[in-house]
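Review box. Two proteins, two foldings.
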Amino acid sequence: MNTKNETFSIHVVKKDDGKRLDHFLSTQLNQVSRTTVCDAIKQGYIRVNNTSKKPSYHVKELDCITGCLPERQPVLFSPEPIPLEILFEDDDILVINKPDGLVVHPAPGNYHGTLVNALLYHYPTLKGIGNDDRPGIVHRLDKHTTGAIIIAKNYVAHQRLSEYFKERQVKKKYLALVWGKCSSSDGHITLPIGRHLSDRKKMSVATSKPRHAETYWQVKKTLGPITLLEVTLLTGRTHQIRVHCSAMQHPIVGDDVYGYKTIPSHLINTNNPLYEQFKKIVTRQMLHAFQLGLPHPRNQQWMAFEAPIPQDMLNMIDLLEQASIISF
């Protein structure tokens, strides 16, 4: 079904009863992403029984869904020759080791220097796969989080990867350097996450609209005032690891949003000569997406990718292993 500029009418049958409206339509409309459908619903282009609904509405048997998809607005960003470190590539997927400072996709006021700009330069055929502002992208990493991120190179791969993330078939492991010594060797955090009550740019475990979030962590190495954790995500909430680490009183080193604004003097001896070296290393949150595992979108064969630990984290570990920096 070609839905652009065409009105469509879909009747819900029994087998689809209970499905989310946005998910249902993304499978009914040919080569249209769920994000595109979601935006059209929010903008009022799509109605159920001639009534406006939210994307999260659960359709019912005999519901009549009508509407159209608006023409996409012109893309406000362009290809840029930004280098990419490729971990894996075939006809369907691309796995990249994202460096610190690279924003994944453009946003108002930030239309240049992003991963999308780089992808459009190196892979121009990605244009149109998914949303125009996120071609091929099915998940994201924060600007200052490094590590493995996967890109879909065609429509079928994009749809299947999106399903894998939705159904939690993707296994994601991170390495994090956090403040303090943990009281146990591992743990399981199940605190819900949602928008901060007063700061809409932040997430929080204290929120008016909590969403289920699960994080497993395991101590890999204790480095005096800092601990190296291996963190496994079971859900993918925004800033999940950063929020959960902060909630358990072990914020990520360098995270001035959810942790300490400056290096805590009660943990690091500011009179130690190594302190100045430590400050030079800590320029971001020390969080790295080092393992990504999922079925291949074409043959469903399990694949696992690993991004090497970035140099700044290695430098910090080396510095901390010099025991004279420890203050307790």
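Next protein.
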Amino acid sequence: MLLSEDVGKLTKKQREYSNSIHHASKRMVDLVNSLLNVSRLELGTFSIEPKLVNIINIAENCLKELKPQLLKKKLIIVNEFDERATFLKVDPKLFAIIFQNFLSNTIKYSKSGGKIYFKIRKEKDAIRITVSDNGIGIPTSQQGQIFKKLFRADNAKKMDPDGSGLGLYIVKEIVDHSGGKICFESQEKRNTTFCVSFPLSGMLKKIGGKVLI
């Protein structure tokens, strides 16, 4: 309400304070949601409800949500979406979480003016999604910990102190529990590629009392 000036015009200093409050509260909401998701993953109480959906539409919606961040860093995103990979039996919410984490990470750790490659393609027996960048990369000595809960590489902490270290952990848990595979390749100071693949039959169904947020 303050930022939209529903209650009156803000001075420059008031707008700065309001932006700081908004940023901090958003971080807190994101952290609480991530912790709730982690709890549900570890307790095994989350559900997976696959249905036949257009996964390219899910990808495009995620890109729309992240467009302000892409513009702010002047990043060029190159999409390669295979029309043969349009439909897959997945849980739409969980698939969106995977896309959002991969894309937001690659935006966060890319240098301004860089390029991001986002590919969805059909292979012989699977649908494969890759997100690549020419950003800061992951130190070789720390790559074995990248999917651990709360872990963040040293260079990532320097570039973005606000991260929680939960995003990739959540993505890996989702993929592992739904019949998919996840992998990555990275060279420090050069590039990183994250990949996830699912069989053509899609995600496995899982009965649970909770949904991920």
